[in-house]
Amino acid sequence: MTSSFLHPSILLIAGALLLPFIQGPLRRPYLFLVPLLGLGAVLYNTTLAGSYGLVNFLDWQLVFGRVDRLATVFALIMALMAVIGTLYGLHVDRAGEHMAAWFYAAGSLGVIYSGDYLSLFLFWEMMAFASVFLIWFRRGPNSLAVGYRYLIIHTIGGIILLAGILLHYQSTGSIAFNLLDVSHPQPATWLIMIGFGLNAAMVPLHFWLPEAYGEASFNGAVFLCAFTTKTAVYALARACAGMEILVVLGVIMALYGMIYAVMENDIRKLLAWSIVSQVGYMVASIGIGTNLAINGAVAHAVAHILYKSLLFMGTGSVLYMTGKTKFTELGGLHAKMPATFFFTLIGCLSISAVPLFAAYASKSMIIAAGFEQHLNWAVWLLMFGATGTFIYNGLKLPYFLFFGTNRCSQATWDKAADPPGNMLIAMTLGATMCILVGTAPGSLYTLLPHAVDYTPYTAYQLMETLQLLGFAALAFFLLKKYVEPMDRVCFDIDWLGRQLGRAFLFMVRHPLQWLDTAWGEAYRVVGLGSLMTISRFWSWFDWHAIDGVVDGIARGVRALGGKVRVLQSGQIQVALFYLSSLAAVVLLTFVVSQLL
Amino acid sequence: MRSLIAYLQARLKTVVTLCFALLAVIAVASLLVDTQHAHTWVEQHLPFFWSLFGFAATALIIGVARWFGRSGIQAPAEVYDRTLLPCEEEE
C-alpha cells in the first residue's frame, strides 16, 4: 500500500471489528468517531490523484486506490452518508447492526476506489453480504425470508458480474476497471452491465428492491437507500457510459417505478419504488453519455442520496415511534410529529425538484443533456415521470401521512411523537444538505467529473418548473380521491409468476386432463381389447395345446404302465416265456439284418 | 409549526383562494418569460404549455395507475401469507 493514500474502508472495517469490545459510555462517541474518521480519510484523499494501494497478486496488479474526480465525488457522499446514517441509529444498542452498516459502507467505498475488476468484485460481494443483515435485524415475521431472497438475487448478480469479468479478461487480457467498448458490446460487456444493472435495480431486475427496503430495520433502510443502487450507478458511469440501451432502460425504470409508487400503500415501499424511478434518470443519463449527461447522473446521484436518506429517516421515525408503515394505518401525524413532518417535507420538496431544493439542481441537468442530444422522446417521458415523482412523493406521501384522514388506532396515536434527539440531528443534517445543494448548486457542481457550464436558475426554467408543479398539484387535489390509499398489495414481477402458474394450472386441468382421458379411453378400447383377445388365445392354447400334450403323455404313460403291470404276473414260467420270446425276436432280427 | 398549520387550517378557504391566485400569477408570468431558451418548438409557441403538461400528465398518471391497479395488479393485503416464524417485530 502506498502510504499517502488512506483507504476509508480499512478504517470502517477495523472500527466494526473493534466495536463489540467498546462498551458502556464509550460506545456512542466511538460510533460517531469511526465513520467520521472514514469521512476524514476521504477528504484527505481528495488532495490526491492517480492510482494508489497497488498490490501484486498472481499475474495481476490490484488497484485499491484509484483516485479521480468521479471516484472522489461518490466517495465523499458515501462517507457522509455513513456519518449521517450512524448518527441516526446512534441509540441502537445492537453492535451487529452498526457492524453490518459499516462493512456495507466499506464495501461501497472499496468499489468506488477500486481500479480493477478483481478488487471491485471483492468489495461488491462484501456489500451484498453485509447489507442483508440490515434486513434481518428488523426481526419482523418476513425479515428472514426477504433477506434470503435479497441475498440469493445479489449472489446471482455477482455470478453474472464475475462471468463478465472473466470473459473480459479472456478477450482483453486486462482486469482494469475502465470504460468498456460500449459501441461494440461483446458478451462480456453485456454481462458486466447486467451485473451492475441488477444492483441498480434495472427493470426487470429490480424486484428485490421494494421488498427488501420496505422490510429493512428503521435505520438499516437509511444505509440501504444510499449505497447499493448508487454504487451501481458509479460503476455504470465508469464502465458503460454512452451505452445506448441504458437510455431505454432508464426511461422504463423512471416510469415503471413511478406508477407503482403512485399505487403503493406502504410509505417505505413507496420510497423504494421511488428509488427505482430516480435511479432510472441516472441510468438514462449515463446512457446518453456526454459530459453534461454524466455530470447530471452524478449530481442526481448525490442529490438523491441526500433527499432519499432524509425521506427514509422521516418515514423510519414514523416506523420507530408508531410501529406502522401503511397509509391506511396512519394519517394526520403532523399534530404529533411536527419536526418529522418538517424534515420529511424538505425531502419531499427536494425529490420533486422544487426550486431551492436538491433535485432542482440535478434533474434539470439530465433533461438538458437529453435535449442537447435530441433525444426528445426520452426527455418527454422523463418529464412525464418527473410529474409523477411530484405526485407520489411531493404530494401523496406528506398529504396522506401527515394530513388527510386520520386512520391511526388509539394505540398508534398515543405512541406517535417526534423521535429521539440523535435522529432529529441526523435529519437536520440531511435537510441542511438538501437545501444547500438546491440554493447553492455550485457547491455540488465543483465536485462533478467534468467542467460544468450549466445554470439551473434561469427565468425560463423557473417558470417551467413552477407551472409544471403548480398545475400538477391542482390536478392532484381535484383527483385525489382516486389515489386514496387502500390496504392492498401490488403485484410486480410476481404477477408474471402468478400468470404463468395459472397458465400451467389451466394446461394441467384442460389439455393435459383431456389428453389423459383420451389416452385412457383409447387404451381401454384398443389396448385392453387386444390384450383380452391375446389372453383368450393363450388361454385356449394353454388348455388345448400344452395341457393336451402334457395330459396326453401322462395318459400314455398310465396306459403303458397298465400294460407293463400285466406282464409282471410274478410266475417264473411266464417270465421265462416272455424273455426267451424276446431273445428269439432279437436273434431273428440280428440274423435277418446280417443276411440282408 | 403546529400553530402555523392550525392557523392555516382555520382559514382554509383563504388558503385555497391564495393558491388559485398564485397559479394564475404563474400562468400569466409564463407568457412574459423569454422562451428563446426553450428546447422545443411546442414550448416556444404554445402558451401555458408547461401548465397544461403538468395538469394533463397528473390526470393521465392517476388514471393509468387506477386502471393498472384494477386490472389485477392490486390484490388484498393478505394475498401472501408469508409468516414463517412467530417473532416479535422491533418497535
Write a compact overview of the structure shown.
The complex is a heterodimer of chains A (596) and B (91). Chain A has 596 residues and is mainly alpha-helical. Helix content of chain A is 73%, strand content 3%.
Measured as a percent range, the helix fraction of chain A is: over 70%
Instruction: Report the largest inter-chain contact.
Output: A-B, 59 and 56 residues
What's the overall geometry of chain A?
elongated
Number of strands of chain B: 1
Largest sheet of chain A: 2 strands, antiparallel
Ends apart, CA distance between termini of chain B: 27 Å
Strand proportion of chain B: under 5%
Compute the separation of the termini of chain A in Å.
Answer: 122 Å
Given helix and strand content, the structural type of chain B is: mainly alpha
Order of helices and strands of chain A: HHEEHHHHHHHHHHHHHHHHHEHH
Radius of gyration of chain B: 23 Å
Q: Report the average pLDDT across residues of chain B.
A: 86
Please work out how many helical segments of chain A DSSP would assign: 21
Uncertain residue ranges of chain B: none
Oligomeric assembly: heterodimer
Describe this structure in words.
The complex is a heterodimer of chains A (596) and B (91). The relative contact order of chain A is 0.07. Chain A folds into three domains: 1-238, no CATH class; 241-487, no CATH class; 497-588. In chain A, helix 1 packs antiparallel against helix 2 (27-45). Chain A is elongated. Helix content of chain A is 73%, strand content 3%. Chain A has 596 residues and is mainly alpha-helical. The mean pLDDT of chain A is 93. With 91 residues, chain B is mainly alpha-helical. Chain B has one domain (2-75). Chain B is flat and about 60 Å long. The two termini of chain B are 27 Å apart. The model of chain B has no long low-confidence stretch (mean pLDDT 86). At the A-B interface, helix 10, helix 13, helix 15, helix 19 and strand 3 of A face helix 2, helix 4 and strand 1 of B. Strand 3 (488-490) of chain A pairs antiparallel with strand 1 (74-76) of chain B, so a sheet runs across the interface.
